[in-house]
Amino acid sequence: MAHGIIHSHLPQVLVVHPPESFSVYQSQYSHKFHFLKAWESPLPLDQFLSTHARNVQAMLSSGISPIKADLLCHLPSLRLVVTPSTGLNHIDLSECRRRGVAVANAGSVASCDVADLAVGLLIDVLRKISVADRYVKQGLWASKTSYPIPLGSKLKGKRIGIIGLGSIGQEVATRLEAFGCSISYNSRKQKPSFSYPFYSSVFELATNSDALVICCGLSDQTHHLINKDVLLALGKEGVIINVGRGAIIDEKEMVQCLVQGDIGGAGLDVFENEPNVPKELFALDNVVLTPHRAAFTHETRASMRELAVGNLEAFFLNKPLLSQVMDN
Amino acid sequence: MDSITVLMTSPMSDYLETQLRDRFNLVKLWTYSSKTDFFKHNSHSIRAVVGNTKIGADAELIDSLPELEIVSSYSVGLDKIDLRKCQEKGIRVTNTPDVLTDDVADVAMGLMLAVTRRVCECDRFVRRGLWPKGNFRLTNKFSGMQVGIVGLDRIGSAIAKRAEAFGCPISYYSRSEKPETNYKYFSNIIDLAVNCQILVVACALTKETHHIINREVIDALGPEGILINIGRGSHIDEPELVSALLEGRLGGAGLDVFENEPEVPEQLFGLENVVLMPHVGSDTVETADAMADLVIKNLEAHFLKKPLLTPVV
Q: Is the pLDDT of residue B224 over 90?
């Protein structure tokens, strides 16, 4: 228990699995918090927690590893979970609510970055930017025997259907309006402060859109929200962009639709079973794939760290949290 | 009008070719094995030339076609046409402005996003099966980056409007200041390059703008700076650009045009901070058709003695 004696004046923060770049938290904030690093212990997790974490009030999530009843039951003093992610699908929110555990996330800190990548993916799919880059870098342009790249599709005037008009969806809408696109949306509830046409049915939205951009979170209600019917309604020229969570789309159906030409193309940053990506997609030129990096810029990761630490500091000072997740 | 002979200089659009063949007596320059062969058979019958960014109408061609009345370019750029000679000889010239403005601006934005967020590199990373071995590195935030535009005409303005929606402060260098915009004007290109993070070339190619992006400008833009070119390859001193990128003196580049198309410096092929496209800025189905329609309409107007739609000379 030597560690406990040395750091006993610092508030304890449990870390079961470290977030990416945890070393920066360690180097910048170990004078403010004592990080209890469960993954470094040779003890099995249950034992580590019952030995060292009975009095822990705050926890820093990795942003990915599940925080559910089977973990929470070992943390009787827990009052706060801070996740450096915007997404909350890895946390059992109702279990936290039941136990009186507050949850704080990254708020809207990452919204611009995620919107930027959504737009970047859409332009890439429609104008074949990655196809072009591959073509030129393989030396095919100067080659006398290769075919030119097929023509792309004009972005201006396209009807964009945004799924989820929260912070990210709003940033996507603002950007695409500047390209001359028309915006409609589906959301849990209509948002009267926005004049974009609202569709209560995702199927109807898909029927009336040239491209769908998924900007919502993953929940029981949005799991496989984009199913085969929705994809077929989107149609042979339709494009789907996903910067939400992989499981919002029925991935198997989407892959089949893409392979068979039932939809026109896809730009995907997230997948059902990361880091595994269906190999059938690798052969397709109408698909652009990025490895869940929409929120991963230097600037935003630093902001997420600062916000996470800000939430922890506020908690230990008995002040209001900076970005508490409230029930809707 | 099928007694009127029209020369098409290079393959540019199947749709345009069909339209020309249906309306006129179409002669295709690239089907002749040599220039002399071509000139021997056709010089005296050709009354119109349809050119593009590859082959336009230079002095040699114009001089060899005594009956030439009009050059209708399948492009907005006029750098491949000897405008002075056309003016001297009373030959009309038309181009395809406006219809391609949005598409070219979209590619400029697409290149900015692709370079800063490493979209193409990420796609490569996933397709090579590297993701299970570890995450892709962090990239740089695009929103809010200072964007500097060289040339604030139709295309430059369309780029500015789009970049503004990302919270990017806009500055520009142009032949003359445009007080009707809110953008910050720099009267020389070095000051523009010093004061922006992404420099976009969107002006026309003329004698004055040849190699306007030289070593000095590249150095001013610097090791964190990104250069985007959707103008003409000769706007940039290409060897200087290549060495700046190889030596890390420039942060990245997104290029749709090159000095000697279709040749592209091979040293660029392995660079992850560089995105290359084969001059496809206006290549969408919609715009290609609109450009072709404009070429046809201009030719028909001329031969029906009606006002030209988009005359340059």
A: yes
